[in-house]
Amino acid sequence: MKNMLTSHVLSPKSFQWLRPKRDEEADHLHRFIYNQCSNQILVINLREVTRYYCGNVIRNMIFSKRSLFGIVEEEKEIDALFTILEYVYSFSISDYLPWLSVFDLDGHKAILKKAYATANKTY
Predict the structure, then answer these.
(1) How far apart are CA 119 and CA 123, in angstroms?
(2) What's the rounded Cα separation, in Å, for the pair 94 and 101?
(3) Which of 44, 80, 105, 122 could join 118 in a cystine, given CB atoms 3.0 to 4.6 angstroms apart?
(4) Rounded distance between C-alpha atoms, residue 84 and residue 95, angstroms
(5) Which pLDDT does position 4 carry in this prediction?
(6) Contact between residue 66 and residue 25 where contact means Cβ atoms under 8 Å apart
(7) How far, CA to CA in Å, does 52 sit from each of 72, 83, 115?
(8) Using alpha carbons only, what angle is made at residue 6 by residues 22 and 17, rounded to the nearest 5 degrees?
(9) Which Gene3D superfamilies would you find in this protein's record (predicted)?
(10) Are 88 and 57 in contact (CB under 8 A)?
């Protein structure tokens, strides 16, 4: 899986192929920041804005949709996508001892099931 990821998904060809989607989301990001500054909002939560940008790039690549800022359900979906990315390749003792996978010692399967159900609600 890691070989396929490095040879196909992270290749320069696919990087150039997905560039318009990243550029489109960057344009939305610039417009959002400009609107926040022109509305006299002095503090912009940079963590929230970058998470919004990265989440929308992921959603645009996977689902060909983008979310609107501030909608609770879509923020939950973006959180679920980041949770899936965090736990899908995480280390577990069951990687070395497959017979322990039925016990879910680390709780990763339960976390992934919950995140997958949340991300899969609207699709």
Answers:
(1) 8
(2) 5
(3) 80
(4) 18
(5) 59
(6) yes
(7) 12, 14, 17
(8) 30
(9) Cytochrome P450 (1.10.630.10)
(10) no
CA 118 – CA 75 distance, rounded (Å): 11
In whole angstroms, what is the distance from residue 111 CA to residue 42 CA? 37
Q: What is the DSSP string of 57-68?
A: HHHHHHHS--PP
3-class DSSP state for residue 96? coil
- Of 14, 51, 2, whose CA–CA distance to 29 is shortest? 51
Side chain identity at residue 86, one-letter code: E
Q: From CA 24, how far away is CA 57, in angstroms rounded?
A: 9
CA distance 117 to 115: 5
Which H or E run contains 11? none
Of the listed ranges 5-14, 56-65, 101-110, the least confidently predicted one is 5-14
Residue pair 92/99 in contact (Cβ under 8 Å)? The answer is no
* Per-residue pLDDT tens over the stretch 12-33: 887 788 888 888 888 988 888 8
pTM: predicted TM-score of the whole model, two decimal places: 0.63
What tokens appear for 65 in the block? 């949709």
Q: In this structure, which amino acid lies at residue 54?
A: C
